Amino acid sequence: MFCLKQSKKIKGYFDLIRPFTLLAPIFVSCCIMVASYFQNRISYDLLSIFWTTIIPASFSLAILNAASNALNQATDVEVDKISKPYRPIVRGDISLKEAKIVSLILYITAFLLSITINSTFTLIVFLIAVFTVSYSLPPRLKDKLFLNQIWIAIPRGLFGILASWSVFGNPLDKLPLTIGFIIMTFLIGGSITKDIIDSEADKKVGTKTLINTYGIKKAAIIVLPLMVLPFAYIPIFIEIGLLKSYLWVLSFLAIPAYFVFHLMLTDKKTCRKMENTSSWTLMYFTYLLFAFGFSLLTVMNSFTF
After folding, report:
1. Right CATH number for 17-296 from 1.20.1440, 1.10.600, 1.10.3470, 1.10.10?
2. Mean local confidence (pLDDT), 20-42
3. Is 21 within 8 Å of 28 (Cβ atoms)?
């Protein structure tokens, strides 16, 4: 009996931090750090610096995401009772107090780990934490129409890119700022896909989203330009000198970005493994592909000089 309770408790902690969702910040941050390493022509051996710097920095960002996941569940119990009753707090496997303690420990861990990288990285990690905490805790930016989308996109898009770039380079250079702006704008639009499943539950607890305010079709039309145009404008960014010409191929990501919009209109089925819709899954895949493509192209370009 004791072993069964302990097993449920351990599973509850895993479900609280949602380990699967941590793969994205690890993957994206590693890609951007590798790109920064080659772009800034760091003299240290990549293999050794990978274990001593890149892995700790990416884990700092992933742990920060885990802290945000735990805090979000701790503050969204009423919504989860309606739309996600399988989550650990609602199931009774983890208490509300335990969830908050776990979240606090993870926030502190992420911050302490960031200190081992550099001061700029630490500062941006702190700013990401401020955004994620203010998103979930009163006055809860999550409840505010339009602001809730921006409050997700800034830390996960812009600040995530800048933090990763700052490990080896200047985050205020035009390249990381432009890349961060592109993915931030895409996420302002694309992150509404996460609200489809929670639409009715959000409305009952007073959280206003584009989905439950305007309906899926109108909301999708509103955010379509935000998802497609950042990629479609890459040739313009190249023309005005914000990006280098070798990145032009990333403009083709406007195609999957459009299909995110298409899926929002046609597919509302839940992907239980990632506890969301197919449009959300494609949105995340596009995000990952952008980071990988940017890193690969930057590394390849570094060998041409």
Report:
1. 1.10.600
2. 93
3. no
